[in-house]
Amino acid sequence: MPESTSLPVLALEDVGLICGWRFACGDSEPAAALSAADAADWLARDAAEHPHSGDFLWLHFNLANAQSLRWLQRHAALPEVFYAALREGLASTRLERAEGSLVAVLNDVNFEFDFESADIATLWICLDERLVITARTQPLRSVDALRAAVRSGDSPASTTELLEHLMRTQADVLVKVVRETTARVDEIEDVILARRDSRPRAHLGRLRRLLVRLQRLLAPEPAALFRLLQQPPGWMSERDRQGLAAASEEFSLMLRDMQTLQDRIRLLQEEVAAIVNEDNNRSLFVLTMVTVLALPINILAGLFGMNVGGIPLAEHPDGFWIVVSIVVAFTAVAAWLAHRHKQRQV
C-alpha cells in the first residue's frame, strides 16, 4: 500500500476504538466485529440507506486517546449533552433523554480492582435505536465482561437490551465484590470472637469505606432508571422497558445487600470498640489496684523517712517487724475493699 494512502487509514484506525460490533436484528448469528473504518462507513452510508433494518452498532472507546472525541464528533451524530458530560468529567450517576437519545453516566469498579485501592471509574454511554456509544478512561470490569459475552456469541436484539445486559453485568460484578467482602467480614468476625487479632478495626474500617463509596456512587442508578422508564423514548419497546425494569430491580436488591453488609460491619465495629473498652477498663483497674495496694507502704515510708525526732519504734528492737505488720494489715484491708467493690460492680 502506498504511503500516501496508508497514513490516513492508520490515522482512522488509531482513534481509541477498543471494540466495535454490529448486531443484526432477527439474526441468530453472533455479532460481527467492526474496525473504526467499517463503523465510519456504516454510520455514513448503511444507516441512511437502511434506516429500518433493525441493525445497530456498539462502539466502545478509550477516552485516554485524544482522537476518540474527534472521531465521535466527526462520524457520530450524538447530542451535545453527551459531549458536555465528557467535558465536565462528573462521576455522579445520571440517566436522561436528550434529542431522542439516552445519555447515561454510570460508575463501575476498575478492571484491576482490589480491596486496598477500591478504585472506581466512570463509564459514559449514549444510545439510540441504531447506535450505542460507550467511553471510558480506565478499564472497567463490567464492560470487559460484556465484551467477552458478545465475543462468545451473546447477541442482544436491540440497543436497549444491550444496555440491560450491561446493567446486569455490572450488578453481577458488584455481587462478586459483596460476596468477597462478606467472606472477609466472616473471617474478621471469627477473629474477633476468638480475640486473636489486635487490628480488626483497621480491616473493618477499610471494608466499610469501600462499601460506603460504592453505594454512594451506585445508589442513584435505580432511581434514575425508574424516572426514565416513566417516560421512555418512542423507539423503546415494551419488552425492552420491562427488561430494564427487571435489571433495575436486581440492582436495587444488590444495593440492599450492600446496605445490610454495612450494618453488619458497623455492629462488628461496635463489638470491637466494646472489647477495646473492656480491655482498657481492665488495665485501668489493675493500675488502680496496684496504686491502692502500694498506698499504705508509701505513706508509712514517707512518714518514717522524714528523719525528725520522735519517730515511733525507732529504739524498739522489733520496730521494723511491727511496721511491716502494720503495712501488711493495711494492704490486706485495701485489697479486701477493692475486691468487694469489684464484686458489687459485677
Automatic annotation (TrEMBL):
Gene3D superfamilies: CorA soluble domain-like, Magnesium transport protein CorA, transmembrane region
Pfam families cross-referenced by the UniProt entry: CorA (PF01544)
CDD domains named among the record's database cross-references: ZntB_u1
Amino-acid biosynthesis in keyword set: no
UniProt keyword annotations, A-Z: Cell inner membrane, Cell membrane, Coiled coil, Ion transport, Membrane, Transmembrane, Transmembrane helix, Transport, Zinc
Membrane-spanning segments: 284-307, 319-338
Record GO terms (molecular function): cobalt ion binding; cobalt ion transmembrane transporter activity; magnesium ion binding; magnesium ion transmembrane transporter activity
Coiled coil, from the record: 251-278
Subcellular location: Cell membrane
Entry membrane topology: Multi-pass membrane protein
GO cellular component, as recorded: plasma membrane
Protein name listed in UniProt: Magnesium transporter CorA
Record organism: Comamonas serinivorans
Lineage, top ranks: Bacteria, Pseudomonadati, Pseudomonadota, Betaproteobacteria, Burkholderiales
